[in-house]
Amino acid sequence: MKKVTTFAAVLAVIGLTACTTTQKVAVQQPSDTRLSCAELEGEFVKLDTVMEDAQGDRGVNTANVAAAVFFWPAAVGNYMNAKDAEELVEKRRTHLMGIYSEKGCDAAE
């Protein structure tokens, strides 16, 4: 009985650590319209980083392989979580690009 309990605990730990944590972004933030052109460009760089992380979480990585082997629903969850994060990044990028254009930032270069 003790071996079964230990084995179940090990599987639970592996299952919990097999999930990826893709950062989610808010599409709109109250201070967005107050951002300068340089700050908006900085936000675009941050969004690129979040997008790269999300795309990595959708691909083959240690967490996804472990999830697929030990608890396949976690692999599906990782994929869906990363997909949601990518959609939020694109919506935020579109929102910020509107502000960027309204401020004439693209004309300033």
List the helices and strands and how they pair.
Layout: H1 2-17, H2 37-58, H3 62-70, H4 72-102
Helix pairs in contact: 1-3, 2-4, 3-4
What would your notes on this structure say?
This protein has helices spanning 2-17, 37-58, 62-70, 72-102. With 109 residues, it is mainly alpha-helical. It has one domain (2-107). Helix 2 (37-58) packs antiparallel against helix 4 (72-102). It starts with a helix and ends in a 7-residue tail after the last helix. 16% of the residues are buried.
Summarize the structure.
The chain has about 110 residues and is mainly α. It has helices spanning about 1-15, 35-60, 60-70, 70-100.
Please count the helical segments.
4
Share of helical residues: over 70%
Decide which structural class fits the backbone: mainly alpha
Radius of gyration in whole Å, from Cα? 20 Å
Question: Quick one: biggest sheet?
Answer: none
Give the amount of beta strand, in percent. under 5%
Number of individual domains: 1
Number of strands: 0
Shape: elongated
Amino- and carboxy-terminal Cα gap: 70 Å
Give average pLDDT, whole number: 76
